[in-house]
Structure formats: structure tokens, C-alpha cells
């Protein structure tokens, strides 16, 4: 089973909290190679945090809750 870096997961979720993005735009924000990015995307889809709709990746309701909680936690640390 592949390991997933919390920093990369956070970058994806927080980026999508700003707005839905196409795969390429989202991929560019991760710093990963494309095959590894797709693994992260599948990881987040499997957990019900993101979905692909009309050619863009967006947060699900659950994903939005997680991203907002993550943003608050990061804000509390700074």
C-alpha cells in the first residue's frame, strides 16, 4: 500500500477550497510527477473527499468539511 504525504493532501484540499480546478492546474500545485498525482487523486476520491465533475476536480461536502477544519487548524498554529 502506498504512503501518502499529509502535506500533499493538505495542498490539494486547500487548493480546492479556493475553487474547483482542472486536473492539470491541480497537478501543477502538488510538485508530484503526474502518475503519483493520480494516485493521490484516487486516494482522495476513494475517501469521498473529492469528485471530478464536468472536467474539474472539486471538493465533496465531506471534503469541504475536512478542508475547512484543516485550514482552521493551520491558522491556529500560526
TrEMBL record:
Domain ArnR1-like winged helix-turn-helix: start-end pairs: 6-70
Signal peptide limits: none
Residue ranges crossing the lipid bilayer per the database entry: none
InterPro entries noted in UniProt: ArnR1-like_HTH, WH-like_DNA-bd_sf, WH_DNA-bd_sf
Top-level division of the source organism's lineage: Archaea
Protein name: ArnR1-like winged helix-turn-helix domain-containing protein
Organism of this sequence: Pyrobaculum calidifontis (strain DSM 21063 / JCM 11548 / VA1)
